[in-house]
Recover the amino acids of this structure.
């Protein structure tokens, strides 16, 4: 297993790199920041430009307007306006493709040998970005579907990004409209066409963070002609690591003698995260029998973290709210017997990686990272997509495992993260990709 210091031969002759990410926090922003930190630790000359900076890393620059106002605030205001017009957007993001800054004016961008795009809403817009992207290699890590749609970040059942040009987007239908919008007023179709123009002849290499995302991009009209590589998100396996369960439960005032089922997301009410299916599965648990009886006769406790809408604890249910401290979050994963992530649409699923790193078996539907890394009976279980009955069965089976098999599953979960998702491994894959893009010799 390499260390970051072992990767210095890959950075010794590497020219300056610039990462572009709308934020350095949130799911995609944290991944971009972790990569930047890893690149710097490996000796690379790497910097990041962002619209909102939450960290104190000096290599990250936050852009503001001439009055000192964060450019991120303009993006938020745009989203709020869209949500008022189009209620369907309220469940997620719709990016118009407008950039609140012209990065072509920045020397850091001009002098970069390679540009690495991440989640770029409000920071990079097409086709204008061709002005600073056309003359250099570009790597684009796709943190959701937005790079190949007319503006949405998750298309759901809509397949217009594949061949329909995203005209008459179902997420942009105000309640009062019954007919498709005129072509000149179709925001999604216009965004799709702008990207089509902006991507022409770019020296672009796509990075899919899971196999499923790669398949979606390969089927898309906008990106099917570009080469791509699958490189998963990394997890900090030092911060997210197994710890004493009894201590963790005391810290969060959780019952010491009951099995614990953990569910969490940035916002648990995001429809993509599957809260409704999770609740259905939990309600089914008591009526499901498996070959092995539960070692603990008491019903499992269910613990939620993330934006829980102010829900109050009640018997058997614990709502812990947002947990931003990685150490505390790692301890919470360690306190649980299983982590359940019933997302029905997911670009990766950082919580899956974090739980595995903490040695907590994961039960999920086959989407995102779960599809790539969860092996039935080894480090968790995969349930049939959007099937609450099968989800309940898989939870019950995991909780009913004999102690020796369960402990082996915990060991396997940790090993999965260390052997596939640790920071040095992911940084090495990106460095080798950069070197190929820059025509540098392999080392």
């Amino acid at each position: 297993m390499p260390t970051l210091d072992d990767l210095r031969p890959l950075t010794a002759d590497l020219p300056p790199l610039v990462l572009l990410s709308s934020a350095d926090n949130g799911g995609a922003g944290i991944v971009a920041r972790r990569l930047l930190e890893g690149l710097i630790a490996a000796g690379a000359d790497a910097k990041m430009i962002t619209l909102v900076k939450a960290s104190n890393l000096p290599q990250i620059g936050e852009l503001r307007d001439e009055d000192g106002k964060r450019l991120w605030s303009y993006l938020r205001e745009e989203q709020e306006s869209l949500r008022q017009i189009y209620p369907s957007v309220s469940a997620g993001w719709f990016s118009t493709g407008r950039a609140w800054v012209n990065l072509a004016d920045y020397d850091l961008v001009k002098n970069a040998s390679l540009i690495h795009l991440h989640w770029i809403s409000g920071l990079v817009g097409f086709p204008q970005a061709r002005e600073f992207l056309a003359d250099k290699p570009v790597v684009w890590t796709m943190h959701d579907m937005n790079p190949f749609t007319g503006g949405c970040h998750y298309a759901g059942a809509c397949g217009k990004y594949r061949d329909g040009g995203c005209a008459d987007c179902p997420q942009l239908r105000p309640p009062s409209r019954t007919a498709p919008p005129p072509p000149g007023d179709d925001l999604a179709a216009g965004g799709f066409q702008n990207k089509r123009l902006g991507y022409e002849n770019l020296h672009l290499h796509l990075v899919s963070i899971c196999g499923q995302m790669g398949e979606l991009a390969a089927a898309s009209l906008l990106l099917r002609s570009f080469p791509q590589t699958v490189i998963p998100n990394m997890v900090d396996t030092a911060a997210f690591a197994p710890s004493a369960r009894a201590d963790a439960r005391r810290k969060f005032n959780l019952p010491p003698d009951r099995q614990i089922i953990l569910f969490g997301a940035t916002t648990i009410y995001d429809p993509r995260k599957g809260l409704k299916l999770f609740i259905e599965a939990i309600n089914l648990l008591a009526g499901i029998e498996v070959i092995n009886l539960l070692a603990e006769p008491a019903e499992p406790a269910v613990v939620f973290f993330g934006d829980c809408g102010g829900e109050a604890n009640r018997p058997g249910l614990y709502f812990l709210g947002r947990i931003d401290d990685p150490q505390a979050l790692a301890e919470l994963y360690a306190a649980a017997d299983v982590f359940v992530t019933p997302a029905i649409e997911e670009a990766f699923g950082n919580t899956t990686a974090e739980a595995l790193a903490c040695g907590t078996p994961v039960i999920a539907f086959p989407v995102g990272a779960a599809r790539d890394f969860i092996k039935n009976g080894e480090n968790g279980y995969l349930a049939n997509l959007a099937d609450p009955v099968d989800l309940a069965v898989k939870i019950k089976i995991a909780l009913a495992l004999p102690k020796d098999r369960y402990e082996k599953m915990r060991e396997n979960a940790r090993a999965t993260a260390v052997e596939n998702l640790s920071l040095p491994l992911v940084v090495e894959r990106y460095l080798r990709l950069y070197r190929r893009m820059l025509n540098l010799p392999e080392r």
Q: What stands out?
A: The radius of gyration is 22 Å. DSSP finds 16 helices and 13 strands in the chain.
